[in-house]
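Exercise 7 asks you to align residues with tokens for two separate proteins.
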Amino acid sequence: MKIWIKYLAGVLIGIAFALVAPHQNASFASIVEYLAELAIQFGRYSLYPFVFFAFSLAVFELRENRTLLRLGAIASGVIIITTILLAVTGLVSVLVTNPSRIPIFVEGASETVAVGLGESIMSLFPSSAFEAFMNGLYILPLCILAGFAGAGCAVDKVSAKATLALFDSLVRVAYSVMTFFVDIVAIGMIALSVHWVIQFRDMLASRAFTDFVFLLLFILFFTAVILYPAIIRFVCGKGNPYRILYASLAPMLAAFFSGDANMTLPVLFRHANESLGIRRRISSITLPMFSIFGRPGTAVTVTVSFIVILKSYSSRGIPFPDMFWLLGIAILLSFVLGRIPFGGAYIALAAVCALYGRGFEAGYLILKPAAFFIGSVAAAIDALTAIMGSYVIGKRLNQVSTRELRFFI
């Protein structure tokens, strides 16, 4: 059975159960939240071993082929372009649709929210390289260590023969383990969707977020069905761009209902390799890069959310110069959220409100009931961007083996 069908079945079962379950019961909600967190932890479990060994081998192979820098440059360009494009799309969408104002029903001082840029930089090179394996949320230190390991093997290939053979064996074992966990996550999708529906019903109970929800869903639909297929057709030429959308169904489901980048990454690895035929040496580099730095979903949701906040507080709208400031700060913040795989969009929104000032420091609190939904849409767009970007990069480097649709997992 296709993975996306398993995930969709889990989601539908969870939704059906949530609609008849006593969602207002505090004990029930607490149990569901615990099970959802357990499902996310389960989905993350197999990520680190595979990323380390696959990243190391990919760096070695790409350095041998003298394409490592080219790959990094192309991936960086794709991340920057898609983030700018999505942020502009969000700005235009919210200005054109003009969603209704959200009642200001939140009182009190703003909470202390920090992106943690300083801590992120400090954690890149811990006191011991082995500490990179200990941080289960931030994969960039692990990728740096793996990169040094791969580069070290390329310096002395004779001495590294045994190491490379061991790494190649271990990455295959790690991939097999990851395959098992990706399949079993379908069961966890039940708990995730129940928890999601409970939050969604609570959010809609106030009837204040209807326009906001439809706007974010429209942006997600427009990006997946129109914008990205057009980009793929333009860059890659002939071929059906909706094959990539089909391959991204399972990752998008996992991302939307979990809101977690690290849980989604193993699902992305499997579909990039087994469905789209992207060579491991490409996807092992590009997918972690997109997971860490490529957060266009955050940029677009932060842009839309902040303008909705401004319109809720004032009917004057946002001045033209402030639009450029908002685009710039939303884009920049999306690049530094790698340490926050879950809830990064709402944290970035709080940071934008704090930086904007002018009495809007606590403005993000009016969207707190919708924080989970903002994160869901952001994560789904990020997952779609990662697999689309990896496919485009693989095509440009002739590292994609085209497979028939019936063989997609």
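Second protein for Exercise 7:
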Amino acid sequence: MSKLQIGTSGWVYKHWMDIFYPPHFPNEQQLSFYAQHFSSVEINFSFYRLPERSVFETWHEQTPSNFMFAVKGSRYLTHMKKLKDPIEPLYRLMERASGLQEKLGPILFQFPHTWHINIERLQPFVELLQTYPQQRFTVEFRHSSWLIPEVYKLLKSVGVAICLPVSPTIPLDICLTSSWTYIRMHSGQWNVGYSDDELSIWAEHIRSFLNQEIDVYVYFNNDPDGHAIHDAQRLRILLK
């Protein structure tokens, strides 16, 4: 049976106080509070600075047994090195993130919006990911040059999912390259938040994926004013 995970990208935001968290709620208790409302979260802090393994272990301890974390890979690998010499950075990421143990879900690699297609870098990188055959990986392309059949074929050959970014400023091709899919909800067409119509359209896409026995992971990244929280809750209701 296919699985659905809905959550937000990150959970520590000052502007969520009084919107989601109680006033003056301590940072160190926010993950436990979040986990009372959602069963999954995307760790995006790891994109800017990769936490030590002990931090991942603490997050594991602070969440219930059915909780699942997606992890965003470090920009050091995707933005600074642009996948060059990936062995050591990938090993470091996996060694630390494995502190989440059975709660470790997909790992996301987001490419820069200015980086044009480079198969010579992509192919050895996604082949390297096969070193971790039990791990799910997804790639978010932000330049339209990557959205071609040659790239889709390569991703399918190694079981890497193409991320579906939902935003008026990011190119999107709704396709599948694995037995599961990963959706990032960045912002609505006319607002940071999503309209009822926009969420309904994506609810239909997700329902279709689930009916095809495709696991779906959805994370809302539109954190200003708590839109991510509200939109994630609204989508969950639509899919009940």
